[in-house]
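B., you asked whether I could sanity-check this one before it goes into the benchmark set. Here's the sequence:
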Amino acid sequence: MNIVHAIARLNVGGAALSVLELAAGQQRRGHDVLVVAGRIPPGEASMEHVAKELGVPYLHLTSLQRNVSATSDLATIRTLRHLLRERRPDVLHTHTAKAGATGRLAALFAGRARPRAVVHTYHGHVLRGYFDPVRERLFRLVERALAHATDRLVAVSDEVRDDLVALHVAPLPKIAVVPYGFDLDRRLHSDAETRARKRAEVGAGDGAFVVGWAGRLTAIKRPLDLVRAVAGVDGAVLVAAGDGELRGDVEALARELGIADRVRLLGYVEDMGDWYAAFDAFLLTSLNEGTPVVAIEAQAAGVPVVATDAGGTRTVVGDGETGFVVPVGAVDELSDRLRRLRDDPALRAELAETGRARMRRLFSLERMVDDVERLYAEILGT
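And here's what the prediction gave me:
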């Protein structure tokens, strides 16, 4: 098959990694694959190097950007339409909101060059909790209209699918659930040498209880809850990978709560693969998640996860089996679960072993490539 993937940007995160590993897996099976991605905004780290590492053909499209811009968006639609007419792919598979909108409109305007299969994946969504009510209603209307120009929609978890149905984006039969899949063994390094080296980088000795986190320091991730939760765990060291507009607020709250000396803000980290080895627990405090890839990686590396019950989190974290899940905003409960992990190494080891095995079973790359290939074949009638 000739396949074009389009994604708004290859910034550090689960969506970009998933698209690149999917494309690499499809390429290994003999398909002709191209990934098209747009501009990475200032302040966000890039994963474009992963495309090179995996040998995935990649086209950088400068006009494709996250923010709404009539000029840039129209230029993107024209360029993508030209690409479809020139390349004549069997499948156009779009990912994330902006690439989904511009890519599907390009297919609609491509005439006879419209790919025989147009697929869009929701790696989460921004239709609730991100914007003011007026813009949310507008974006929902746009997504409902675009759904009519799409052969199948894909959700990365049951929870994302159920949200899309509840928001009337599309009826249930039009939405397929394809969980993420990753080459976990390639990415993760959890040996003793790596653990000692990464802990030394943040000044954490063997006896320290190190809590990890990774993401954007932005409101939807509730990073202030992160600081409050760790403040309730005596001696815990927080190591946070990521950056964003709330970094100053995080630093200020850490000083106010008297734990600034126990908080390490790494900024953006290109490759988290080695860092999981340094952690004794991983913490997620988000208000909303599609499928939290960092939780998949943490557990695959043998790190129990304490997380809020947001979006597709329960798809990844088994409460009492691979970690703990508590209500969003329940800071005291987050602290309590972290203390339990700190005080019970045997429990940590039990959850870690279950997590390692479960992540490799549920989130393997080959399973994801199989699922997507079956979906394409169903649409194409092959």
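One thing to flag: Residues 225 and 329 are 7 Å apart (CA to CA). Otherwise nothing jumped out at me.
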